[in-house]
Amino acid sequence: MHRAKLKRTGAFVILVGVCATAAFLVYMTSMRAQNIGPQKTPSPHLAEPAAKVWEASFFSALEERTSKINLPRLKASAVAADHLEMRYWYDGSPDVINGFVIRRVNNSWSALGIRQARDRWPSAVLQENLGAPKSGWDALWKQLTDADLLVLPDEEQTKCHGQTLDGGGVVIEVLSKKTYRIYRYSNPTVVTCEEAKQMRLIDHIIVQEFNLLQGRA
User: Fold this and answer.
1) CA 206 to chain centre
2) Is 76 helix (H, G, I), strand (E, B) or coil?
3) I want to staple 160 with a disulfide (CB 3.0 to 4.6 A). Which of 78, 96, 135, 193 is the partner?
């Protein structure tokens, strides 16, 4: 009698184990079918997936600088729904690339100045927290968007070209509503087209709001 009872108990335990395993497998299959599980924050969409002809050489030079301060590529960053970011680069490569970054993440704003320690490459790269703008964060962002920050085309899509033997360009990266855009203008201070005027206005807003003197195009 005792052995028979043990056999029945053992069989019951095995049956319960089999049922539990089967239930777990059904549950996991259901979760996969519903795509339920840890969700990764997506990378931004690309407004213009095709790369510009200048992008590869510019980012090769830029990443030599940004790697020194552990600043990841904006294009490849994981972004939250409320993430706003603008990166303004004065492109005097191969010698100099200086920049400015404004971002809002989790409703918290910040601004950084990024510049080389000397006007030759290689160089140390310095990063400075610039504090709040004179007009406040929301007012600053409105000024920038009113200056067409989010909609300016790349100069390759316009007839706006600065043909000079020397000088630099301005590259703007912007992330808004999970969409990433990038555009560049060569020597916007000497070009008269409307797009170049807007680039100069964006530069002026940044310089005035943060009392910046370096890195202007």
Assistant:
1) 18
2) coil
3) 193
Residue for token digits 């053992």? 10
67 phi and psi, to 5 degrees? -65, -25
3-state SS, residue 25: helix
DSSP reduced 3-state for 172: strand
Q: What is the DSSP letter of 135?
A: T
What is the dihedral angle through the alpha carbons of 174, 175, 177, 178, rounded to the nearest 10 degrees?
Answer: 140
Cis preceding-peptide flag for 122 (omega within 30 of 0)? yes
**Tens digit of each residue's pLDDT, the chain (217 residues):** 444 443 444 444 333 344 444 444 444 444 444 444 444 556 677 666 567 888 999 999 999 999 999 999 998 777 788 899 999 999 999 999 999 999 999 999 999 999 999 999 999 999 999 999 999 999 999 999 999 999 999 998 998 876 655 678 999 999 999 899 999 999 998 888 999 999 999 999 999 999 986 444 4
Burial of residue 30 (number of CB atoms within 10 Å: 0-12, 13-18, 19+): exposed
Residue showing tokens 């690339």: 97
